[in-house]
Amino acid sequence: MISGRCECHRVRFQIDGEINDYSHCHCSQCRRLHGAAFASFAGVERTAFRYLSGESDISSYASSDSHQRLFCKHCGSNILVELSAEPDALYVAMGVIEGNPKLPPAYHIFMGSKAPWYEFDNGGEQYDTFPDE
Ligand SMILES: [Zn+2]
Ligand SMILES: [Zn+2]
């Protein structure tokens, strides 16, 4: 079982299942919203995810028509991303997951807009946008 929480402890969640997708996104929205060189996400079945506390402390931001980003409105921790094209999946921010869960092979998306000030050589397939484009 996988668990996680936001920085201020209000939002806590549990994932009863496997992480079935593991990506690092280098798009400018993820970089800006996560305040980082890239954002790492664990794809899980929506039915495997449940809040233990703090669901009412969540706010959301639509970074595009298809992307809804959920974060703790108190501490600003990014919790997860919902994609309208994948209603059965959630992409949980790796940074709020506790410990070192079992992960599938990583891949990198939106390398075409990666931060120019950081070089990546840590392995994994790299795609300019999405893998299928
Ligand atoms: Zn918080
Ligand atoms: Zn992104």
Write the layout of secondary structure elements.
Blueprint: E1 2-5, E2 12-15, E3 21-25, H1 28-34, E4 39-45, E5 49-53, E6 58-62, E7 67-72, E8 78-83, E9 89-93, E10 107-109, E11 125-126
Parallel strand pairs: 3-10, 10-11
Antiparallel strand pairs: 1-2, 2-5, 3-4, 4-9, 6-7, 7-8, 8-9
The protein binds zinc ion (2 copies).
Characterization of the model:
The structure is a single chain. With 133 residues, this protein is mostly beta strands. It has a single domain (2-126), classed as Metal Binding Protein, Guanine Nucleotide Exchange Factor, Chain A. Helix content is 5%, strand content 39%. It has an eight-stranded mixed beta sheet with strand order 6-7-8-9-4-3-10-11. Strand 6 and strand 7 form a beta hairpin. The radius of gyration is 14 Å and the shape is globular. Bound molecules: zinc ion (ZN) (2 copies). One zinc ion (ZN) binds at residues 25, 27, 29-30, 39, 110.
Strand content: 35-45%
Query: What compounds are bound to the protein?
Result: zinc ion
- Give the ordered list of helices and strands: EEEHEEEEEEEE
- Work out the helicity level: under 10%
Instruction: Note poorly predicted spans.
Output: none
Number of strands: 11
